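Workshop exercise sheet. Pairs work together: one partner reads the sequence aloud, the other fills in the structure field after running the prediction. Swap roles for the next sheet.
Pair: D.N. / O.F.
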Amino acid sequence: MGRAFFSKPWRDTENYQKDFDFVKSYKPRNQDVKHLRILLHGPVGAGKSSFYNSVESLLKGRVVGRAPTNTNTGKSFTLKYKAYTIQKDPDSFYPFIFNDTMGFEEKTNNGVHVEDVKLAMRGHVPDGYKFNPEVQFQETDPGYKEHPTLDDRVHVLVCVMAAGLVSLTSDDVWKKMREVRLAASEMGIPQLAILTKVDEAFPEVKTNIDKGYKHKCLKQKVDEFSMSLGIQPNCIFLVKNYQSETNVNADINALILSALKWMVTSGEDYLNNL
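Structure field:
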């Protein structure tokens, strides 16, 4: 097993309790925004909905599964543009929202339209809109937000990719994700990425999830992902989503929290620089 791991992590670990306290106490300083909006996008089967469920599990201290998921990854199980909030206590919610999207697929008329994701980033797409792989969302469609507020717009874009699919993803899907990334760059939206299912891609990590940032092949996957998408390696995070577990786990939580903290701080920086 030793040959699979570096002696030291290739990314510094964060201060768990300090980061957890930060996330729990976070509030946007921009008075025009009630919620920091985080948009998840990526190919079918990447684990976008599962990541939201995992964040809620982390914050609630118990495994939950509010966002529907499917282990059969042939087609996108998410068909609607859905905004998920997380209840903090009986009277309030955390001030960040996750927007889930339909997955990208290889063919033109399959999966979510790139233009629909661009419209979502600009705040034009209403919550509950059902994606149509054959027809993109139009200004004349019911629910189209002609004059979105800053609160409607996306403040952080997160690409979600399963670690084992980095080398198997088609050029067509990479092209769609790069086009979304370019549009976000033009809007000034910060971009991060997460590699999910790290334990499925590399069995050595399954029983050593705390050593994820020491694993040599995962470092190579991060570098490969960086080259394919064009996003910096230090903006790519390793995650294991809650799937088979029935109780939360400190090591799994640590990976999720590291990614979540960067999403919140990146979005806060974006809002403060407007």
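Discussion prompt: The chain has a mean pLDDT of 92. What would you look at next?
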